[in-house]
Amino acid sequence: MSVNDRVASMFIRMIQGETLYLKDEETRYDVKGRTIERYIKSIREYIEDSDVNLNFVTKTNPPRYCITKNTDIPFEEILALLKIVIGTRSFNKAEFAQLRNRLLSQLSKEDRNKAIQLTNSTVAKYVPVESKYNLLGRINDFSNYINDHLTIDYKYHSSSGLVRQGLALPISIYFDTFYFYVVMYNEESNQSFPYRLDRFEEYAASKADKIKMPRQLKKDDGSERNNTYLLSYGNKVNFEFYYSGYPQTALDRLPDSKIKQTLDNEVLIEGNAYTQGLVLWIMSQGSRVRVKSPVSLVNAVKDELEKTLRYYE
């Protein structure tokens, strides 16, 4: 193999994400370290003199060399994204593998191996939520509907077991607690409702009808998202409750809330949320929550508690 062939081979391997160790290259080509350093110098000078989107990286202890792209996402960001994807459990195993491999491919071989080692135990135990549909294609479809302001015909399997058909205008996509949701505007009711993305049995852009959402009903997605827990239906209320658990737990779950008063063994928290989701969260906290107002929320929690107690009579 000629010198040029060796340099080209080393360059290609580095472009593919491999880290070259000086000692390993000495053995591979049966040459001294100074010869390998000359090959490496040629590669480094080519990158520095060329208008390419690459960085040449030299590391020591042991001496090794790699190439990174300026567009590469840092290792810690890739690892964080991997952990988030694993934690959502939203994607079936095939889609999860696709996402994982795509993220890992952004790393050098050295960092890729490290990321694999740091995620192997959780990947082996990955259990997705139950769904018979792929999500990535649906996310793409509904993103296009939203971007192009397209009305859709749909068939939807609700949580009550009923299958509903309708016509609506998709306006935004959210993620919350395992599931992706699309918020759609219904012209007949003049309201927007959330739908779980994996529960659509059929959907397609409508050929006959086009819905336009009234300007006064358009909401800021970020503000609305902060007001929504579990994206549930119900009336929006201003609430107050006493909380004896770790305060930040409540504040994190109910973003549009704050501590109104700090007492000896509890805090008084106030905020805004939708009733149905708020009741579900309050029930999950057991005796750590005591609702102060409004009366409608107090009664809703009492009703749920009474229903639960009847199961044990």
UniProtKB/TrEMBL annotation:
This is Uncharacterized protein. It comes from the Bacteria. InterPro entries: CBASS_pafABC_assoc_protein.
